[in-house]
Write a structure and sequence with these properties.
single chain; 111 residues; alpha+beta; 26% helix; 15% strand; globular
């Protein structure tokens, strides 16, 4: 039965080769293993404020929201799924330990 307001999710393409940092998923999983969560930065065009608000409302209402990371090209894609805990255009300062070190090394966010 269709619903008027289906859950929203986020799909992001990425490449390990973009910053020459090795296995991006492994680098993020190291932070998860240490802290229980990790931030993933989206490069390029930003998400619309309305989309961010919708995802955060959904999370607050305890409706699952997922981040789907798609790696590779169209011939051989690999997909990963993670629970979204929050979506933001800016990294909250207290959350810096949840960012893999390569972001600062590559100047991908303000430290």
């Amino acid at each position: 039965m269709p619903t008027d307001n289906p859950p929203a999710h986020l799909v992001v393409r990425f490449a390990d080769s973009m910053f020459d940092v090795g296995d991006v998923i492994a680098r993020h999983n190291e932070v998860v293993a240490q802290h229980g969560a990790v931030w993933f930065g989206k490069l390029g065009s930003t998400l619309a404020v309305g989309r961010i608000d919708r995802l955060n409302r959904q999370i607050q209402e305890a409706t699952p929201a997922f981040l789907y990371l798609v790696k590779g090209n169209r011939r051989l894609p690999t997909a990963f799924r993670a629970d979204l805990l929050a979506v933001s255009k800016n990294l909250p300062p207290r959350e810096k330990p949840l960012v893999p070190a390569y972001y600062a090394e590559k100047n991908s966010y303000d430290t």
